Amino acid sequence: MNSKKKQKKKWYKEISKNIHIRSQISEARDKFANFLELPPEVINSSTKITSIENSDILIEGYKQIIDYYDDYIKIKAHNMEIVIDGKGLDIKEITDFELVIQGEIYSLNYKK
Questions:
Q1: Same domain? 53 vs 107
Q2: What is the largest CA-CA distance in the chain?
């Protein structure tokens, strides 16, 4: 067997091994989350947005606040940017994981 074929075969074995390991890790993470009854957004690094009428928004799983003005807030989440337009917008609560925004909300937009 020539060296190129050996390299391809070795590369393929390494990739298939990594895929198998990632699959096992994913299964273990899912079992752990089910055991602890954790919500999927905590385990999968996803973002959950809850809106109560046009006055309150709860964002769970954000990364950072990009822009913050009285009428415009832009937030970076795990896989998107969230843009909130409104009047009298204010961040009422902030933690490492959650963000509560209050004010008169006109629109909530997502950008990938």
A1: yes
A2: 71
